[in-house]
Task: structure prediction
Amino acid sequence: MKYRILTILSLLAFTVASAEPFTIPLSLAAARTGRPSPIYIADGIELITMHPDNVRIDDLNDLSKDVYPIQIGAFRVKTNAEKLYSKVSGILGKDVTMIEEDGFFKIRVTKLDKERILNYTDSGKTGIENPSDTTVAAVAADSVNVAYSIPDSALVAQAVPLTLAGGTSGQDQDQLVEPIEKPRRNLFLINDESPWLKRINYFGKSFALVNALIITIIVSITTMIILLMVILLNRARMEKQEDLKQYLAETYQGMIIDYLFTGSSPDRFRSIASDNFRRQALIDQMIDVSVNLKGDAEEKLGGLYLYLGLDRDSIRRAKDYRWHKKIKGFRELAFMNIKDANNVIYRALNSKNDILRMEAQIALVRLTDDDPFGFLFHLNKPFSLWEQITLHELIIQHDLPVPEFKKFLKAGNPTVVMFALRMIREFKQKDAEDDVRETLEHPSPEVRKLAVQVAGDLEMRSTLEVMKRLYKSQDYNTCIEIIRAMAKMPDPSLLGFLKLVLDKEDDVQLQIEATKAIENNGEEGVKTLVKLMKSEYKNYNIIVRHVLDRRIF
Result:
């Protein structure tokens, strides 16, 4: 990657250094405009109105050959161009034209009529002593040089050989054919001779936009290279830290094991604990080792943790405003059984961050001795199913004492009540039957539905009469669960109720569940179904026949 960057920089420097000024060939310029390129003369106004020069007029006429127009001015403001056009057309007549091209108003002469020019100047109509006080001077301020103009020297080379009469010097010829360009300021390290600062109009579009894009590209490439270098340096630093971390992990793990099982002095860890990076590496290794420790070894490791003052680091992280730092602090405190920050963990129970909330729950279960799940009464946020599964796994993996979950059936949070119902079913706490029976009338339909399921799974028969009484007032899903719960707890006293459901309900699923519940009552239930099937035809006869068909099961 480093060699690629160097190669790109070398190619970019070579391209900028070897760039040549851009010029447009004459034939290409003529092809772009669709007409012959004009001849530009800087002093055309004075030549026509003030100081006619017979030799120059003849030379210009020969040079144009009635094909190449002679341009004497270009203006941004139309009124200025009209003033000059009015002045010159009064002298040359129809040989003067004004056109709009590339955003400029240009005055061009198709032919310099020497006789008209001389007659005009000889008659004394000019009245011009100083051009700065005339219309010519007024419009001169608006006159501009067209940057893409073709040098007249190139035009002369492709037209006809020119020999100036009257002793016209080479200096005058250069003045005649070369356009005047305004000096350009330096831009950073790019001087006015740089090809990037050439202003060329291409089909009416200025290359200034292209120059701006080139500068933008250069800045973007430079920024990309800088960012790439920063990324590479940061990556190298991270790789170096990772290698060091791996080395320290192996070293510290061996030192911790030696301390626990060989009785080495804890003072050797003092030098390690003086550096923040190494302190964190030591904490991580202590946590990894503590997972597999029990009894005296676990207590000894906790004592070393306190001796080195590492608990202060964990408490500081638990109080950090960043949630990922808090989580790391909670985990360290939970693994090392440090209870000094329990109040901080309690405040995170109702955090908007789901992960932080779950880590706080796990930490409190491990750090609370008397009532590990007492925090459930303080939980206001929804207790998600994933959080419930996590706490259940925590009980199993760490062999935590199982509390009586029936007390949480009184919690104000419906999700906590549902968690308690699931744990009652999971740990088969049948002594909670009375509390479950009361929960059947809970305001939440989800809680009522789950309570019916739990009562059926644990065969809590005292709930049957309550289910029978509540059936008509429940939603569809709860009604389905009530019939299924009655099927799990067969009771001949419910046959009448089940037959009524089969006969009165129009829903097929309810009829199927009621038929199965009747059939689960054994021989008496089967006789009841056969009797129903042989009676007058009802829409449920096919359902009864289907349930009684043993080939299906």
Q: What stands out?
A: The chain has 26 helices and six strands. The chain has a mean pLDDT of 79. The longest helix spans residues 207-262.
